[in-house]
Amino acid sequence: MVSVYAIGWAGASRRLNPHGAIGTRTRRRCYVLAMGEPAGGISGVVPAALRVGRSPAAVVLALVRSAGPVTRDRLALHSDLSTATVNRQVHALAGAELIVERPDLVDGGGIGRPKVPLTLNHEGLAVAAMHIGARRTLLAIADLAGRTLHSHAVLTPDGDPVEVIGILADALAELISRFSGRRFLWAGVAVGGDVDETTGAVDHPVLGWRGAPVGAMVNQALGLPVSVCEHVQAMAAAELVLAPPVGGAVPGRSSIYWYARETVGMALTVDGHVQVPRTGAGTVAHVPVRAPLFGPSGIGPSGIGTVGLQQVIGTSALRGAMRRSGSAAESSLVEERARALGEAIATIADVLNPDTVIVAGDAFANHPRGLAPVQAAFDAARHLPHRLELTPTRFGLGVQEAAAVVVALSVIYADPIGSVG
Fold first, then answer.
1. 208 conformational bin, left if phi > 0, alpha if psi -120 to 50, beta if neither
2. What is the rounded CA–CA span in Å between residue 34 and residue 331?
3. Domains of the chain by range and CATH?
4. Around Cβ 247, how many Cβ atoms within 10 Å?
5. Residue 412's closest CA among 131, 42, 162?
6. Which residues touch 177 (CB under 8 Å, ≥6 apart)?
7. With the CA atoms of 334, 335, 337 and 342 taken in that order, what torsion angle do they form, in degrees rounded to the nearest 10?
8. Phi (first) and psi of residue 282, to 5 degrees
């Protein structure tokens, strides 16, 4: 594994060891690396825009991203926009350097005046992204299309949150410094817990953070606008924005997104918009499930084997259940966890009645029979007549990376001219 050096210290540098852990030398004053001017005059912490952009500029940018290289007339053909409106948006997006003309791709065999194709500015622009997990933190650089140019994971350090955030922010700054030929537009952070999207402050019970200044410190370290988002909401946005359904999003459709790894969470998407309550993300950690093997001495608090869903999720829960039961094999615990997940998802799905249910995380992926046991438990617990198939995330093992990248790109995608132009 390649060692990574976190540059940005007054008279010092820090090295990430070959196992991904970051050293814990006392943090010193960080200086801002030269990474280009902030986008569009916007600075500080900006709430993520977890939705499909609907402005004319957003529609044109999305079409260029998904269909490029593409000509102006085809943009008008595949949208509800007039040719004049398309031309105005192309002019504005090109002025903001988000799209470029590609005369080298002109089809010389056509009739009449050659039509110059348009593409995203893949080569000149980039965003920086970070997913802070309970055990590991992923750092990534992506281009304007959301394609990852580089990513690697490090162990999330223990200790004071200000120290930890500073270490991680400086590691991301060092990674940005390797891409000196690109102009960085934005930074995005996806993280578990309760996120104040306006200030970027984070309460993370697993890490012991309360009011941790994630947004402010990443902004200070990188000198870029930064968005901070609850990670399950960000994962739902990635499905919506980075990997839209074939044929585009269907108006009025809804989906629920479940993530279960070391923690468990859920997000709701309606009509191309991830729902972000004013008071922050809700929780499904307390949803009661029948899982007697995971309760104290094999019996849950209610005496009939009922525990909160979080008590069956993660490595610690599995090891604790094995230690308490003594006789329960790991395979039995994995089966019980799959059943508990399926029943919990069915309970919420019966209430919300979504069009689709998307699932991600090791708790779904690590069963020897894949998603089948969760689907079987879900089907058995459903009370609505129509069958609903659980759909795995389209990002596979890269779901955390996609979540971080979409947070970095979301404001640009939703309002390209206002954010960058």
1. left
2. 52
3. 1-243+394-421 (3.30.420.40), 251-392 (3.30.420.40)
4. 6
5. 42
6. 7, 33, 35
7. 140
8. -80, -170
DSSP 8-state assignment for residue 397 = G
Helix (H, G, I), strand (E, B) or coil at 243: coil
Is 179 strand, coil or helix? Answer: coil
Give the separation between CA 305 and CA 296, rounded to whole angstroms: 9
| 224: CB partners within 8 A, 6+ apart | 35, 38, 39, 128, 184, 185, 186, 187
To the nearest 10 degrees (0 to 180), the angle between helices 315-325 and 330-352 is 130
Residues 64, 70, 72, 76: what is their CA dihedral angle, to the nearest 10 degrees? -70
For the chain, the 3-state helix, strand and coil shares in percent, each to the nearest 5, are 35, 25, 40
In angstroms, the Cα distances linking 77 to 72, 88, 99, 101, 411 are 9, 15, 19, 19, 26
Q: Which residues contact 230 (CB under 8 A, 6 or more apart)?
A: 190, 191, 192, 193, 194, 195, 265, 267, 276, 280, 281
Dump pLDDT digits (tens) for 252-304. Answer: 689 999 999 988 999 999 999 999 988 878 889 999 999 988 887 555 444 45
Q: Is 67 helix (H, G, I), strand (E, B) or coil?
A: helix
Three-class DSSP category at 125: strand
**How confident is the model over 332-367, as pLDDT tens digits?**
899 999 999 999 999 999 999 999 999 999 999 888
pTM score of the predicted model: 0.85
Give the Cα separation of 75 and 52 in Å (integer). Answer: 17
Q: What are phi and psi of 161, to 5 degrees?
A: -60, -35
Contact 329, 336 (CB under 8 A): no
Q: Tell me the residue length of the chain.
A: 421
Contact 244, 345 (CB under 8 A): no
